[in-house]
Specification:
The complex is a heterotrimer of chains A (316), B (287) and C (505). Chain A is an all-alpha fold and 316 residues long. Chain A is built from 13 helices and no strands. In chain A, helix 8 crosses helix 9. Classes of the chains: A mainly alpha (316), B mainly alpha (287), C alpha+beta (505). Chains A and B meet through helix 1, helix 7, helix 8, helix 9 and helix 11 of A and helix 6, helix 7, helix 10 and helix 12 of B.
Chain lengths: 316, 287, 505
Amino acid sequence: MARIAQALLKRLGGMAIVLALVVTVVFIIVRVTPGDPAAVMLGSDATPADIAQLREKMGLDAPLLMQYGQFVLGILQGDLGQSIFLNQPVTTALAARAEPTFFLTLFSILIAVGIALPVGILSAVKRGTIFDQIVVTLTMVAASVPSFWLGLILIQVFAVGQGWFPASGYGGPETPFFERLHHLVLPAVALGVVNSALITRFTRAAMLDVLGDDYVRTARAKGAGEGRVILKHALKNAMIPIITVIGLSVAMLVAGAVVTETVFGLPGVGNLVVSAVLRRDYPVIQGALLVVAAIYVLINFIVDMLYILVDPRVRL
Amino acid sequence: MTTMASLSMPFASGLRRLFGNRAMLFGAIILVIVVAAALLAPWVAPYAPNKLSIINKLKPPSITNFFGTDEFGRDIFSRAIFAGRISLLVSLGVVFISTVLGVILGVAAGFFRRLDAPISRLLDAMMSFPDILLAIALVAALGPSLTTVILALGITYAPRLARIVRGSTLVLRELPYIEAAVAMGLPTWQILARHVLLNLASPILVQATFVFASAMLAEASLSFLGVGVSTDMPTWGTMLASGREYMNNAPWLMVFPGLAIVFSVLSLQLLGDGLRDLVDPRLAKES
Amino acid sequence: MKKSALVLMTLAALAGTSSLALAQASDGILTVATIGEPPTLDVMQTATDIVLTIDQHIFETLYTYDAEWKSVPLLAAGMPKISEDGLTYTIPLREGVTFHDGSAFDAKDVTASLKRWMAVNSKGKQVAGIVESLTEDGDHAVVFKLKSRYAPLLATLSQASVILPSEKIADTLTEFVGTGPYALKERKPDQYTQLVRFDGYKSPEGTPSNYAGKREAIAKEIRFVPVPDANTRVEGLISGQFDYADSLPVSAFERVEKSGNAKPVIFRDAGWASMNMNMKEGLLVKKELRQAVQVALNPNDMMMAAFSDDRFFSVDASIFPEGSFWHTEAGVARYGDGNPEEAAKLLKDGGYDGTPIRLLTSRQYEFHYKIGEVAKAYLEAAGFKVDLQVVDWATLTTRRADSKAWDIFITHSNFPGDPTTINTITDTYPGWYVSDQKAKAVATYMDATTDDAKKAAWDGIQTVIYDDAPLYKVGNFNAVSGVANGVSGYEPTYWPHFWNVSPKK
């Protein structure tokens, strides 16, 4: 138990360092903007006085190191700055858009894992059969499809053609939760299917790896049922790489969500970022980047911790 | 280290294995076609990509226009071919930048103990950003153009290569002959250039192929979102973005550029997989 | 306006009145899909179409436009009393009007609001330059004293010059309180702007005509939902998600028509597309080269590519469309089928050295981009080199402000009530159209007092515009929008409005 606590502390420290670097990278990205960000933000109608005022408000006149200090201080206080276009705190803007993105990501990962685990396992078990070959081919193809293209096709077939799902949006002010989820079906499928490819391949590979191991052979020799061998012995040991890749996929899903949300008109974080780019709303881009990266670091941390639970042999 | 195995493998047997892998062969053939079409675009494309013919707008695929025409009456087949140039150019640029950055960071982290921790943490941090999101932010900061897209994606994918390179370097530096070279007092740069980099070629090649594929998808996404390269030459992503309006009446505007992306990316993935199998026979055995 | 347009409008107006007779306040909600999120609801700061569309339900101006785009009273009680010398305007105000917060509307609110408008709004700033004083005349009248005659005064008081309670006026508005038929309830950026019926609304009288006449808030609620993607607006309309969808791509006309769930609505001569040229710096400071651009282009092909079918556009050299009071053929030149030879000759005369023309366009409006693509082909045929830069709208507006960064940009505008409020006529508008003959022609217009004199002066202005070529008029376009079946009383206007509209039962 003490070892686990120690490992926890060590990884917490690592996470803090990575987070600090993330903050720095985000700060640098926004500062490389050529020209005066204040002028760019205010657009063509701005007077020099307006620009000077915004520069001051944004603290752009301060020395770089001080600006960095203030940026970090703000983040520690949960202040990600003020959106120029929306005229509200970035945190508020992000919070207002968290729901669709959260559920989109959740459903896509469920769909992806729901497809990938059984298919990957079966494919490994039936290695070399037609089924296996079809799976290998399909995963290859799925990994090559741009999710926004798949999304457009799904809209065309199931929303426009069949009318089973709404083509876009997330409902109005009083739309019940269930109805909002209905809006998420197509985007989640588009995203989930594309991302299932990678997880399927990893599951298959991980399973193949352990199926050849001694203890699985031993279990078989002892006369354990095939299903029991696969689920209890093989899968348990294949879980570590699978968990890793699922964790990684979450980050890829968030990236995919940026495009998918735009295609489906979902008012999520991804959509916000794309609009922010078109609106030159740098604080929003900066804030979204930071939050998403932080969530990813957190997921990684959780995945790390899961390793320890799944497989006590992991070096602590 | 399996890298060595592949390098010492006789050329003929390598070739046999190359063609023995049907999927890889298929990928290689598609890639050759795509690259050849892009290189020879002015001769291969039946029409100029921006040649307007308003009377012939939105015509379905036919003998004269294999992929149909778009809203300006431009030939989609010709445009798709020319678009391949931009997509390949961007992806190659991305591969180049990310490889250079990745090798520098990876070798530095793998070979010099003291640099390992800081570089690795930086790579962790960089990899916490979803690729498209990081690229969007960089493009927004630098202003959209061909160069910035290449630069942004190059930076985005550099950590992927750096990780692989670091891993391989860590293994390499423990090998007896490199330890011997160090002990003999050979200059570090010579060790790196002669012994380390050469042996890294295969894992880099494999990873670069996958980065190539990812870059192609990412470029299409950025162009689709309207934050990508802005040239008056078409890209597959921008073709999809403008074809969207005609999804109902003229689906060919969307289908063909999309298929072009799928096939190009697929060819790279197949190739990358095949290469990895060649380099790492342990994995080959399993598939 | 074309005859058919007039018939259409009259029919729509009749339909409007007949439903008015039956209309009762309803519990229904109108969900309106707009082309994007308004950056703010402060229309004085940002008088863009989307802000004007939403704000006209919340705020009102002293005057507004009727079907002939003449300014008629809205919050004003009548037309102004103008002194002999044309320098003093006394504007009477309606009594008994209240704001959404319950406070009464009076002259103090008008002077306070218009002073802010003259300080922050781009048109307002121009007006400020010729206003000697603006004062209250009792509680229910205000007086404008001008330094010089200014023919477009009422037209400028009909648009972004909205009246707010004097107490709510601030540099940055935080409360959006007006006198309009609907009051702001909630705004969630990128999700919706929710307006609710204002029960204390006092409407002007008269038959509805364009924005003028009786206004009745029938729907209980209007929700403006930003849907930047045009196809999404189409699909949302057809699936019943939206009651009204603004600005639909013409390619969707048949699909909406056949859907059985909604009807497409054509608003004729909604606006005009133009290619504005940089007269301050770069290649096109030379008049010959600007005229070469005029000669080289083929407006019909540009409009055909952009709007796909002649139901949706018309090509007309007159800056104002047929049927409009300002329609004129005066001075029209170099507007035709695209003549590469003649253009090449002008290029030679102008000493064109092969420097590429930087043609800026954006995809915010697809037709801008499409016009750009076709223009490029025609300009190249004439011997120009063209660097077509397709950027996003924010980049375009930033870049066009910098005279070093571009040669031509593509835009569009509506047909304003007063011809001299066309952007290009202002010296400072990107393009920087400064010329002696223009200044003279505009001065003649400003001095004109009768409609006939104004019309003659406008003929003169259009003539110098064709000669100086600060812009190339491409053509007029019709706007397509869609109304869900079951929604009645919608009358198309440039900025769609939803008073007098009955929602689905």
